[in-house]
């Protein structure tokens, strides 16, 4: 099939639909499409017999069930009669069980679900062809108006049209096996076993009054060390039952053609081609630890049926279906990826206090948050807060934090943001108002933008510096204002050099575009332009490296005299020092290039030179790019090694950002998408970390701090939108305490103003017919 193919249609003729795959998604799509138009001719092919299924229980959310109820009350009623419901989650770690309630789950056996859908399809007149391979996709596309490929994670349809759908399949680092036990857990149970071979985990939940799904998972290295790669399926089950004997109440496990496997994340660039559309696992997968692939498949079927009803023809319906579902699925996959990686890195969290460990597990995907969990189970959340050290009525973000001789009154940082508003590197009234307003806004620490150590180290002509006494005096005006008018707020300076990313236009005139006139020469680790057509920097000589080191030290000395409380060395985002760290930008063959140890050499020399002149009682942090988001660049493992090296040299915290090192990067954007890198560094290096990147709500900050994934949270755009973001966060949480002190002139505005009433939107899907 090389191009879009459509079966010839006759106006007014009922749609002819072919469905490949008899799993829940394919069956439910068939039932919906037939119910909405009984004249449609719908044929479904399933290679297995009707009583063959894999796995055991299926979990569906209340949201999904609501959609089913609107679309097909008959199916909903049949499901309702068989569902097992429960509210609690148990986390068992080191012999201690913590229970959190209010979560609301519903599950039933996969075999029973298929029986219900088989019966519904037959009653509606869908033709079900079991034990039959579907005809080739080319033939189906010619003979039918619509072909729904619901043929699973190993979809032959997707592979046949791989050049069109462009699938990306990632295999992960844990092995798991899907089993069952002949009794019902009374909660969703996570149990951690620390064995001589490494950590193993059990995921268990009931799906009938006398049966539970049991998934055993462990890292590939642990799986091999424990010898599971050499055991038969029966021996594996027996071994797993012994490891988790207490959770299983001494009972055996049973299999359903179960085998150890690794999870595969499937993403497709496109979901449809001509009249062929992917549905469920054929289009996308999400790790079992955040729910059910069946849930996504059923929701796909609901959306596809709705779009075929609403749109005038198949092409527009398929486009609308993908437009509607893709962002929802992408969000789910981001959450699933976070959850999957949390379990892959489970060993990092074993030393956490028991309640914090439980909270960390519950909030791992970032879908359950501190505020959300408080609504579900206030008692549990308050117990975690007490163990963490929150005074009564104090949200985690408003607890103090100490770095060397500096105590921050809360965990909020105004992230460095380039303003491009200086003249000759001198901060002016704009900077006084910009930084002063955010200091008055309640953050524990306000950071300057990157302050350049030389004229040639500026990014643009509008960048600030600390390479002259006049600049230092102007900065003293800013720090004096902060210390006088916002007592308790610290102000930090970020020192850096643009490297190969300098001599460019102001951001709003053309970001990273070279100046049309007035360029200055660039220097970098290696003579590589940042973008094609950009200026090529000169490779720094040994003598120039010495000069640069002295420029950083001189700027740090001026920063100390200017009254800054904290200094951050900018080793991220492709600027000069970052350019030494990344293998994509450092091609040197001397002692400053090659292995990571050698690439670290110059940034560490600069750090040491700065630390030597920076007052001993004042903290120093380092911002790094923990990944380049590009093949062959800095990896998460490299980031841990980089952080460990700076920690060994005396860094007090690592500010963990990512990317902006090479123009061809492909970041995986999403809410708080950079925090997993900070989390890993915090636990592997055991150094405080500042998390940054799409952290936009106080709920996110509370969640990250209480879970132990970060010590401080830096926010940029929220502080552009609202300079008083921190004080408003306190007001919205009803907090009045030392972690968020309103300036006396502003106290009259410390209560959130009342707003008018707004009505919630109606549900998206409400089908009838």
Radius of gyration: 29 Å
Oligomeric category: single chain
Helix content: 25-40%
Q: How many beta-strand runs?
A: 29
Describe the structure using short key phrases.
20% strand, 29 strands, 26 helices, disordered N terminus, 769 residues, 36% helix, eight-stranded parallel beta barrel, alpha/beta
SSE diagram, text form:
Layout: E1 16-20, H1 24-36, E2 41-45, E3 57-60, H2 62-71, H3 73-82, E4 84-86, E5 89-93, E6 96-100, E7 105-109, H4 110-124, E8 127-129, H5 137-143, E9 146-149, H6 156-160, H7 162-165, E10 167-181, E11 188-195, E12 198-208, E13 211-219, H8 220-225, H9 233-243, E14 253-254, E15 261-268, E16 272-273, E17 276-278, H10 293-310, H11 314-344, H12 354-362, H13 370-376, H14 378-388, E18 401-403, E19 406-408, E20 412-414, H15 429-440, E21 445-452, H16 469-485, E22 490-496, H17 507-510, E23 523-524, E24 538-539, H18 542-561, E25 566-571, H19 576-581, H20 596-599, H21 601-613, E26 620-625, H22 636-648, E27 653-657, H23 675-685, E28 689-692, H24 698-707, E29 712-715, H25 717-721, H26 725-732
Parallel strand pairs: 1-2, 1-9, 2-8, 5-11, 9-17, 20-21, 20-29, 21-22, 22-25, 23-24, 25-26, 26-27, 27-28, 28-29
Antiparallel strand pairs: 3-7, 4-7, 5-6, 10-13, 10-14, 10-15, 11-12, 12-13, 16-17, 18-19
